[in-house]
Write a structure and sequence with these properties.
Helix content is 27%, strand content 24%. The chain is an alpha/beta fold.
Length: 111
């Protein structure tokens, strides 16, 4: 088992090729640890779950909406879905600003 799975409850949805990950933190303003975010990002890029199943999506479900809000930007940049609730009843987090965008040319001042 990957180290970043130790503190997570997961569920795989074969129909969507999606791994759902439940995370709960005592403090709502807690970021997902960088090593865990990097681990999920690598897992998504590999196209396989830790168990070897086909993988196209990873969705992190936080117990609190505030935690989902706090983690939205870094997870969205990594193309990881952000939800709140629990694995049985997850609501997609929708930022008022939408998902963050990244445009290499304009972000680096190239016109």
């Amino acid at each position: 088992m990957s180290d970043f799975l130790k503190n997570s409850e997961t569920r795989y949805d074969a129909s969507q090729k999606a791994l759902w990950v439940y995370r709960e933190f005592d403090d709502a303003k807690t970021l997902l640890p960088p090593a865990e975010l990097q681990g999920w990002s690598k897992q998504l890029q590999s196209g396989k779950t830790p168990a070897g199943e086909a993988l196209e999506h990873i969705n992190i479900v936080f117990s609190q909406q505030k935690t989902a809000e706090y983690n939205h930007q870094p997870l969205s940049f990594s193309k990881i879905g952000v939800y709140y609730g629990d694995l049985d009843n997850a609501t997609r987090y929708q930022s008022e600003d939408g998902d963050p965008g990244f445009d290499t040319r304009s972000d680096f001042g190239i016109e």
